[in-house]
Amino acid sequence: MRRLPLLVDPHGREHRDLRISLTDHCNLRCTYCMPEQGVPWLPKATLLALPELLAIAEVAVGAGISEIRLTGGEPLLRRDIVEIVAGLAALSGPAGRPEVSMTTNGIGLAKLAGALAEAGLARVNVSLDTLRPDRFVQLARRDRLADTLAGIEASLAAGLGPLKLNTVLMRGINTDEAVDLLRHALGIGAELRFIEQMPLDAGHTWTREGMVTADETQSLLASAFDLRALPGRGAAPAERFEVRPVGSPDAEPLGTVGIIASVTRPFCGNCDRLRLTADGQLRNCLFATGETDLRTPLRSGASDEELTALIHENLAAKLPGHGINDPDFLQPRRPMSAIGG
Ligand code: SAM
Ligand code: SF4
Asked: Over 85-134, what HEC string results?
């Protein structure tokens, strides 16, 4: 087992969570994430192969990373996804074996959930913005709601839990489904998390006025549910609430709901996340404008110590906050699909 210096940034935040984007490709085209056409794909030769990915992850886990979240683009599009999960789950560091989880649109999970669970995947977050097939086509530009729902079912059957569902609300498009989506999640024993839309779309169409805020989401839910804040958030992006039927304060909770208010209630002060892009660039924030190239040194034979030094260099430049609300905020060059959410 390796013992390398822990990942503490200049603001005292210890980093334990590594998000790895496995590909920038996707089988959907969600309007808030990717344009319909003309996506500038990462050159194939720059994508990290399985051994390269594992080599970087091993160094990170040795330095104290204890949670690895696979994302993309759509991580299930990687043909070697089961091998990737198995390789990552077998790593070991000061905190023991990392917990490996995945954020996915669920398409493909119907086939893969069992094998992924066996390979060591602990749990999944599945994105679900609507329960209506016609609206799914409008939002994701593909007719795949049935595949997503089948994937959700399969992940429950495979024990990939606790299951979380991610929803981005968009005004006038799916806000009228906020209550139905939460009811659906509670019905299958999942935790729904409403994510505020962030300025990370490839088309640069985000506007502050257009996004649905956490306050609005809470008002929408208040028509049917009573939300009671849960303490002990730690470094988690989601504020979590117990959910009861409206007007029944003494009832048993029906479950929980999360709200990720990255724009209106930033939670940077407790951030413990680093991000590795599919082409081997380390980012210390979703909104970072700089990256540290790990791919080129790795391919030139850098030692574990040299790679660790590069990770620390990246961390040393981490800002205290994402700056979305600053007047001089600049949207990062990479869209969400190429960073990894
Ligand atoms: N394809 C997978 C999926 O959709 O779950 C994984 C990658 S996706 C980039 C990860 C998460 O980011 C999804 O839950 C998606 O809804 C969210 N997301 C994408 N673009 C976003 C944006 N502009 N603002 C907020 N969340 C966004
Ligand atoms: Fe694909 Fe996920 Fe982006 Fe939708 S949010 S386009 S599923 S990467």
From this structure: HHHHHCCCECCECCEEEEEECCCCHHHHHHHHHHHCEEEEEEECCCCCHH
